[in-house]
Design brief:
The protein has 14 helices and 14 strands. With about 400 residues, the chain is an alpha/beta fold. The chain has a seven-stranded mixed β-sheet with strand order 4-10-9-8-7-5-6, with helices on both faces. Strands 1-2-3-13 form a four-stranded mixed β-sheet. Strands 11-12-14 form a three-stranded antiparallel β-sheet. Helix 3 runs antiparallel to helix 11, helix 12 runs parallel beside helix 14 and helix 13 packs across helix 14. The longest helix is centred in the C-terminal third of the chain and has 22 residues. The chain is globular and about 55 Å long. The N terminus is likely disordered.
Length: about 400
């Protein structure tokens, strides 16, 4: 094994040598360079130079309980001591986490795990297409459902690069909350639509929830048509005990989960009715092939079950209240800065309302560095969350830092 340099300058040289552009994933690209983590604990992260940062990044909402929560670490250590790291047969932790999920989503009866939200979306779309015998997917723009070819068109021109036109043509895009266009698309293609894919409060669209009328139109269509309704709750499942799906009173064919249900480890899941997931039954002749070497591994399953058990209804309510407190503490001071505090449950962001749309992505990256200068680790896309290890004093401290950052980055 080659030694990796430990000084910042050597790290910079090495990363540019071995990684495309010097970045391991696109979301790390917040400028010419990006910080490097050296350690993390609770609601703190330390970079390569020892700078301590208040963590509202939480790896894109993954870390419900901050970094290295003792109960999660203990569960992981136990599985590793037992040698249950990566095994090629089923394990009981898979059953435990599946039951925990189904207890939170009472209308659902089956779970199939994957390794990420991207994989789970891919699987749900494939199941819908196999079940209906149809090819078209209706999705909303702007939006983000991972990086599989079927859903990349929701990201616009940058998303469709490398996606064949024949694949792009199978995804029908509808502007968010445009009921008239949604009706038109559903009516025009009613015999060819396999699924309608919704994120009920998408971050990249500015955390604007879908209107009840819009959701009702989509739900009514799939209820009276073979097409299936898929709800992407990879981010929003943390907002309520049973996710936003329950808050809207929906019982879709499938819900896609990820991020927060894995205790910090890679995970995805498709949760749905027995009839919706029957095509994944390997005991049937029509069962779809679905594997994944690390799918439902014991470490992830154990960590995820601990994370969700800790994140009960009272923990969710408390975290949502803390986010409300943060919004109230920043509202007056953000007025006139060009930034708006927006939230959904314990997911929040400063939205660049004062910028023209073409400048918003660059503004978010400028804000990332302003946060950084004030001792806060945000994200380059603006997606932010609190964690259960935070309290009111931390939130009040964070409010001052967010205000200071916003004042530095003006439209």
């Amino acid at each position: 094994m080659n030694d990796v340099a430990t000084t910042f300058l050597d790290i910079e040289a090495t990363r540019k040598e071995v990684l495309p552009g010097g970045f391991g994933r696109s979301t790390f690209a917040v400028g010419a360079t990006s910080p490097y983590v050296s350690r993390a604990s609770g609601h703190w992260v330390w970079d390569q130079e020892g700078t301590r940062l208040l963590d509202i990044n939480n790896n894109m909402t993954v870390n419900l309980h901050g970094n290295a929560h003792p109960a999660i670490v203990a569960a992981v250590e136990e599985r590793m001591r037992e040698g249950l790291i990566s095994v090629g047969i089923a394990n009981t932790d898979e059953l435990t986490l599946a039951r925990t999920l189904l207890d939170r989503i009472p209308w659902a009866t089956k779970v199939r795990f994957a390794n990420s939200g991207t994989e789970a979306v891919m699987l749900a779309v494939r199941v819908a297409r196999a079940t209906t015998g149809r090819g078209l997917l209706v999705a909303l723009e702007p939006g983000y459902h991972g990086t599989s070819d079927a859903v990349l068109p929701t990201l616009g021109a940058k998303g469709i690069a490398g996606v064949p036109e024949a694949v792009q043509s199978q995804t029908l895009l509808v502007p968010r909350n445009d009921v008239a266009v949604l009706r038109q698309v559903l009516e025009q293609h009613s015999n060819d639509i396999a699924a309608v894919l919704l994120d009920l409060c998408a971050n990249r669209a500015g955390l604007i929830p879908l209107s009840r009328e819009f959701v009702d139109v989509a739900s009514a269509f799939t209820a009276s048509n073979p097409a299936q309704l898929i709800i992407d709750e990879v981010v929003t499942f943390r907002n309520a005990f049973s996710g936003l799906t329950a808050e809207y009173g929906l019982q879709p064919d499938m819900v896609v989960l990820g991020k927060t249900i894995g205790g910090g480890f890679p995970i995805g899941a498709v949760v749905g009715s027995a009839s919706a997931l029957e095509r994944l039954n390997p005991r049937t002749a029509a069962g779809l092939e679905h594997g994944g070497t690390f799918t439902a591994n014991p470490v992830t399953m154990a960590a995820g079950d601990v994370a969700l058990t800790l994140f009960d209804a009272s923990a969710i309510a408390r975290l949502n209240r803390l986010t409300d407190r943060l919004g109230a503490a920043t509202a007056d001071d953000l007025a006139g800065t060009g930034w708006e505090f927006r939230k959904s449950g314990s997911v929040f962001r400063l939205w660049p309302a004062g910028w023209v749309p073409a400048d918003r992505a660059a503004a978010q990256k400028e804000l990332f560095w302003a946060h950084y200068r004030h001792g806060v680790l945000g994200t380059g896309t603006g997606l932010s969350t609190l964690s259960t290890v935070m309290d009111e004093s931390i939130v009040d401290e964070l409010a001052g830092k967010l205000i200071a950052s916003a004042r530095e980055v003006q439209p």
